[in-house]
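Hello,

I think I submitted the protoporphyrin IX containing FE job twice by accident. Can you confirm which output corresponds to this input? Input:
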Amino acid sequence: MKWTSSLAGLVSLFTLVTAQSDSEPFVDADTGITFQSSTNSEGVTYRLALPADASADKPYDVILQVIAPVELGWVGWAWGGVMTYNPLTVVWANGKDVVYTSRQALGYYTPVQYEDAKYTVLKGTGVNETHFKFTALCSGCVSWPDFDGNLATLDGTSQVNFAYAYSTTPVEDPSTGESGFSIHDSVGHWTHDLGAARSDKFSSWVAANSGTNSTLRRRLRVGRYGY
Ligand code: HEM
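Support: Only one job matched these inputs. Its output is below.
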């Protein structure tokens, strides 16, 4: 009897552990957006906000945010949790500006430009003394063709496995997203709770944090941000 109940306890503990994600809610002061946020052991933070109806049924846009120590040459987000054949977001600092590039790896070499993910840079993007911070709306980050050519979409109701990569080596030409860069110093994985990242405020967050590029750029250059 005792054995049965402790076994039941073990089983429920196991369920609890496997159901755990590495992300938690975080309200970003710069944008007012409530993200699901995850910071890895290298001190790089990955955040996501999704529309309330996000699911695996159809593609949806996301708001992503990446914050990284300025010492890093580049940091990456692999949306499929592996290096190859899925959208990669790669970000670095160029002086006071943040530069991003949309890539896809066709093998274990420098990923090529990837046109099917489009980014709109939002407020909450800039560089301070210690970190760079990138906030954007992405259309195409969570859906991509599988090996049969069918579009698959990350299940916005569940927990999803992402991968990160970073390098301490600067990219070849930090001023352009077309720059080449060399292999990471480290890669790893985390589980992000997409279901909990959904909100019916999504559209109003996008509207409140959009601006013309020049307005945005001016604000970013003079702006300070918190975490
Ligand atoms: C010049 C750029 C890059 C080079 C040369 C490169 C090369 C490699 C190599 C050789 C491996 C080891 C494969 C193995 O041992 O099985 C690897 C693994 C990995 N890379 Fe890259 N990589 C680059 C950029 C990136 C970027 C930008 C990301 C993510 C945004 C990334 C994510 C990963 C991940 C998650 C792995 C673990 C294995 C896997 O998921 O396939 N890499 N990379």
